[in-house]
Amino acid sequence: MQNKNVKQVIVVGGGTAGWLTAANLAKKFNSVDAQAIQVTLIESPDIPTIGVGEGTWPTMRKTLAKLGISETEFLIKCNASFKQATKFVNWQQAAKNGIDTSYYHLFTSINDPLEFNLAPYWKLGIIGENKSYADTVSMQAAICERGLAPKLITNKEFEGLQNYAYHLDAGLFTDLLREHGTKNLGVKHISANVTDVNLDEDGYIASINTDTVGIISGDFFVDCTGFKSLLIGKALGIPFKSINDTLLSDHALAIQVPYESEKSMISSCTISTAHEAGWTWDIALSNRRGTGYVYSSAHTTHERAEQVLRNYIGPQAEQLDARLIKMNVGYREKFWHKNCFAVGLSAAFVEPLEASAIFLIEASANMLSELFPRDRQAMLAVEKKVNKSFKFRWDKTIEFIKMHYFLSKRTEPFWQDNKELSTVPDSLLESLECWQHQLVTGYDFDNVYEPFPLDSYQYVLYGMGFEQKLAFNQSAYSMDKVAKQHYERVQALTPKIQEQLPDNRTLLKKIAQYGLPQI
């Protein structure tokens, strides 16, 4: 094998995956310097953006700051808003007599449960009597219920009184990344369609053919071509492993919903509502809502699914168009092969229940830029490390999403089929068996790249009514006084912070007018 140095990185495909990866690499390489590794992104002019409204994790704040993108500019140009949680409606059980049940998966707790866990004191009734777990350990659910923002206009960019992420328009986010990447980071942009991929004698990608600019050569290639997977799938032959026997939903219907008035509340959380054969997302941007229904075509018809979504939206849905999306749920058997790394839909796709898609793009871009090999010989070791890491991350993400379904007490066929043991990863069953008799602890998370932390598991387990028998070991939870102090602090701070914080719409208007203070 020829040990060629890497001088040219070619990112094939745009969208969030392509541009976020290209921007990260160019920033890391300092590609504005002509002597540095150069990054070129080839983007088809013919592929429209889906634009359903996307949710991020709080990690996006660090990513934007690292790339040198102003939070003010990002919020304005991407019609973005603040996200502080996911609210799960009717997941534990269906609404009874028209009354919904709900729980929150929050971003902020009063303290880190790895340091002092309030969960056993709540489960044993020592604190938080008649309160949900979320309201026992955090003020953030109460903040979300009132549509309040996580920060003040006086807070600096990317800083807040509560931990937060964003809702954004993915198409506009791509535009922002393209503009910033090409103008400020040294990314070269080519608009063309890929017609063929050429391999060298060692089976590495040597170049790609395009319809308008001819052959483009490179030393390392990033496949961001979506479900087509033109490089790692089609050219390099890496198979796709379906997981539709674990996650049963295979379609989504999306409808963009305008606000009824300029004063309509902009929700501070993603709202996920369970229905007969799946669930709806409701994502509030600054200018509209992005809604959709994720469902299993084996358990309902497309016509019935569309009716469920329109019923959820209400009368205004009659005038709105719906778009059907076929979901290819699963992942590549390898994410990195030879001199190609797949990011985004070309690598994997799981349903958007916990907004993991953009986070895993961020994780891919970060790991690639941090471990980037400078020649072919170095690629072999990095390939092995990256494949192991992302196999773990995707498996844990699938497991976490499946947990929501498995714990549900809904009785419709779709939900009952999700409880079939043959559909549940053995690792999840083992964990749940263990957690019936003891707390979730740090020992359950022995990998530094766990996508979901201990806190996330507790929000979902307790929100879904997971039974945990701790009374036999009650004497081990003897720090009642400390637990009550933490709890009383939450109760005291909740009304104070509610009075202090503006609602989302008010803050976004102020940011558009005045901007946020720079870091």
Task: Give an overview in words.
The chain has 519 residues and is of the alpha+beta class. It has a domain at 8-80 and 167-242 and 329-398: FAD/NAD(P)-binding domain, CATH 3.50.50.60. Helix content is 36%, strand content 19%. The chain has 16 helices and 22 strands. The strands form five sheets. A seven-stranded mixed sheet has the order 6-5-15-16-17-14-18. Strands 8-2-1-12-21-20 form a six-stranded mixed sheet. A hairpin with a 2-residue loop joins strand 15 (270-275) and strand 16. Helix 1 packs parallel to helix 7 (170-185) and helix 10 (356-371) runs antiparallel to helix 11. The protein is globular, with a radius of gyration of 23 Å. It starts with 7 loop residues before the first strand and ends in a 5-residue tail after the last helix. The model has no long low-confidence stretch (mean pLDDT 96).
